[in-house]
Amino acid sequence: MRKSIKYWVVVLISLGLLLLAACSEKESSTESTNEKIKIITTIAQIAEPLSVIGGDYVEVTSLMGPSVDPHLYNATHGDITKIDQSEIVFYNGLNLEANMVDIFNEMSASKPVLAIGETLSGDLLLEDETGAIDPHIWFDLDLWKLALESAVRELQDYAPEHKDYFEENMEDYFSKIDDLKEEAKKLTEIPANNRYLVTAHDAFGYFGNMHELEVIGLQGLSTDGEIGVSDIQDTISIIKEYNVPAVFIESSINDSSINAVIEGAKDEGVDVSLGGELYSDAMGEAGTEEGTYLGMYRHNVETIYNALMGGVE
């Protein structure tokens, strides 16, 4: 039986509607991708947690990768372009990224720019003997939650339609930080005479405070100074006095200074081992466990525990 003209008209209209729906769905999918909030951070300790908390609605890029020292970092032309094209900028502050502050101040006139460390109450922050503030706040798990929360609040203000989503993800992520805090309590098992954490620079003050370790850094809070012979000798004297079993290199700092301590101690008849590599100012490679904030922190806990408990009978 021949189909009527009316039948074919209905068929063509139906096909047209299906085609329009498919195009609309494709456009919607493209718009969804394009609607991701473009976030730039300086360090991966900010970027990686925010990528987890922001989930489907953010695109987070860290300017500084593995082994990069933020104390000495200078922005490239490409970095400035990335910052300019971003929607929100988060950095640590507290003079960690000292060479980039002017850029952030300029960019803040056109977009949200937040130094998350500078949202914390001053009485929570550590200072060195000169009064300089210690910027390495990610090593205090409780402080880092507060700092990350300030970034999430900024994100919620920017995209209030996703406020509940960000809140739920933040609470879930913070519960994982709390679990890690419980795991790290094993560090209190280290005997008192072994509780000396010797590293290349003074990045672990907050870590030491949280886990009751005496921290000794060859350099001060920043790595922009020189390490002198007296710094190495003073460290060797401490190792001798307290019989420190191990010292540690850092992934973002040349290991020559720590190796000089080990060799100098050996020349004086003191056997001190290399306890391993710690992540201080930079995290590990993306895609690895150490490339996550939780994994980096857990690596440091395990490395320190194993090294400082090694001589315990």
Structure characterization notes:
There is one protein chain. Strands 2-1-3-4 form a four-stranded parallel sheet, sandwiched between helices. Strands 5-6 form a two-stranded parallel ribbon. The protein has a two-stranded parallel ribbon with strand order 7-8. With 313 residues, the protein is of the alpha/beta class. The protein has helices spanning 5-34, 44-54, 77-85, 101-107, 141-158, 163-183, 205-211, 229-242, 256-267, 293-308; strands at residues 37-41, 58-62, 88-91, 113-115, 196-201, 214-219, 246-250, 273-278. The chain has two domains: 34-184, Nitrogenase molybdenum iron protein domain (Rossmann fold); 187-308, Nitrogenase molybdenum iron protein domain (Rossmann fold), CATH 3.40.50.1980. Residues 7-12 and 16-33 have low confidence and may be disordered. α2 crosses α6. Keywords: Coiled coil, Metal-binding, Signal, Transport. This is Manganese transporter. It is found in: Cell envelope.
What is the CATH architecture assignment of the largest domain?
3-Layer(aba) Sandwich
Specify the helix fraction band: 40-55%
Give the CATH class of the largest domain.
Answer: Alpha Beta
Largest sheet: 4 strands, parallel
The total beta strand count reads 8
CATH H level, superfamily name of the largest domain: Nitrogenase molybdenum iron protein domain
* N to C succession of SSEs: HEHEHEHEHHEHEHEHEH
| Mean pLDDT, all residues | 88
